[in-house]
Design goal:
Chain B: It is a multi-pass membrane protein. The complex is a heterodimer of chains A (about 10) and B (about 220). By secondary structure, chain A is low in regular secondary structure. Chain B has helices at about 5-25, 35-45, 60-80, 100-110, 115-130, 135-140, 150-175, 180-190, 195-205. Chain B is an all-alpha fold and about 220 residues long. The radius of gyration of chain B is 17 Å and the shape is globular. Classes of the chains: A little secondary structure (about 10), B mainly alpha (about 220). The interface of A and B includes residues 4, 7, 9 and 10 of A.
Chain lengths: ~10, ~220
């Protein structure tokens, strides 16, 4: 996922 | 990953385990709102649609499976399990939660970072999670003696998003271009909704008295 993307969070 | 986010995820996991412990061991869901559990199942279903298409990390995938699995099994327990369902207080769990799903969906269709199915559904899950606790808080106001596990469950569920706010502050200062207003405002509203619960929870802990929310 893109750097700083919030979708790497739960 | 930073300690605030890890602490938030562990607190969220703890809330789920406390609830599963309560339901599975004493076969009771007294004080637990089925509507909030259904909203959370919808939150995870709409947020984790990309669980198999956008791999982030082993940890991320495992946690998503745990949250999805626990949310749906808790709904199943309260709806179907012959012993657990008897302790469900359906006469007081009357918040019209369907009335908050649609506005969240409409809002996600209007305000989002990108107009794609995945991002709109993810945004919908953020808006929905912000208000998902409302049926549970309403039920607590109507529940006379709130048992410890229920109080701990709600406390941990509120605390996890408060820790996520610290995570967002940390990431804002350490990662360039890390700006997600939608996530931040939703998370802030979500945490603020717990404000009075946190107050009464802290009072009951400090004065060592039963937790009770004023109606």
């Amino acid at each position: 996922s893109r750097a700083g993307d919030a979708k790497d969070e739960l | 990953m930073n300690i605030f986010r890890l602490a938030g995820d562990m607190t969220h996991l703890a809330s789920v385990l406390v609830l599963l412990l309560k339901i599975h061991t004493i076969k009771s869901c007294a004080g637990i709102s089925l509507k909030t559990q259904e909203l959370y199942a919808l939150v995870f279903a709409s947020r984790y649609l990309d669980i198999f298409t956008h791999y982030v990390s082993f940890y991320n995938t495992v946690m998503k499976l745990i949250f999805l699995g626990s949310a749906f099994s808790i709904v199943w327990y309260i709806r179907r399990h012959k012993l657990v369902r008897r302790s469900y207080d359906k006469d007081h769990d009357t918040f019209r939660h369907y009335f908050i799903v649609l506005p969240c969906l409409i809002l996600a269709l209007l305000i989002h970072e990108k107009f794609t199915f995945r991002v709109v559904m993810w945004t919908f899950s953020l808006y929905l999670e912000a208000v998902a606790i409302l049926p549970q808080l309403v039920l607590l106001q109507r529940t006379r003696n709130i048992d410890n596990l229920t109080g701990q469950y709600v406390f941990l569920l509120g605390a996890y998003r408060a820790l996520y706010i610290l995570n967002w502050v940390y990431r804002y200062f350490t990662e360039p271009h890390y700006v997600h207003w939608i996530t931040w405002i939703s998370g802030l509203i979500q945490t603020l909704l717990y404000a009075d619960f946190f107050y009464y929870y802290f009072q009951s802990w400090k004065n060592n008295v039963k937790l009770e929310l004023p109606a």
